[in-house]
Amino acid sequence: MHKFDKEFDEFFENPDIKKLLEENDVGEDSLIALKNEEERLWDVERYKVFYQSIIENPQIFAGKVVLVLRPGLGLPVIWAAKAGAERVICADDTKLIDFVRELVKKENLNNVDCIYTGTSNLLLGKDMVDVIISDWIGYFGVNQKFIYELIRIRDMCLKKDGVVLPDKIVFSAGFFSDEEQLMTNFGFWDKVYDYQMPVMKNACFLEAVYERVTPKSIVTAPKILWTFNLAPDAPEDEYVNLDNLSFNKKIILSPNANVVTINELVPGKITAIFVT
């Protein structure tokens, strides 16, 4: 078992952590945030990458000022502090920040500042931060415009020789077909107490849904949409800022070996476009 897997299991089996989760009321305004955190936490492979990037690279964090944007339930905050950061600042505009505050207190981490604020109101001095961590970007950077948020904060307070985690983002897209997921996410609205609610169903189709996509359900070869280099020292032709950031791109998706006939690519059979 990898050290991360052991620590991850111990984190959620810890009775103190369970007590914190039960006692901290996140409030109605943060229920969606809590649900998103639940989905993200079980993306173990992604969290393992962040764990290794932080814990196994103490030379990046030792004696540094680290900013964690939207820390969720606080795992990246703990790791940064344990990697030797002199100061860790974490900011979020949901009540989950109260849980993080209690968690760092339990872990006796006296070098962590938890700030309850939206990032648009987060005022930090120029060249104040050595490292920025945004594990939301590692999840899906376009959602809720988090990539804009990260770039703005980077340009405002990150040192020229600073580090962004992750510093490179690759977005790819394709079609996947899974009738079970289709019914779970959208079929509910076909019969709500014997009434059809197509308006609600159509509205749900416009919202992003986080799902684990199995290789078997992918029916087109994925295509890369965009590659963004967020490192402050990125080459000029790769450097991304708010002025040159663009999401306009057309791609052609072709059926892969999972599709027996082209007739399978018809409305009602395709569940959704996936973007990673």
UniProtKB/TrEMBL annotation:
Keywords, comma-separated and alphabetical: S-adenosyl-L-methionine
GO cellular component: nucleus
UniProt entry tagged with the keyword Transcription: no
Cross-referenced Gene3D superfamilies: Hnrnp arginine n-methyltransferase1, Vaccinia Virus protein VP39
Domain of life of the native organism: Eukaryota
Signal sequence, start to end: none
InterPro entries linked: Arg_MeTrfase (IPR025799), SAM-dependent_MTases_sf (IPR029063)
One example GO MF annotation: histone methyltransferase activity
Designated name of the protein: Uncharacterized protein
Source organism per UniProt: Rotaria magnacalcarata
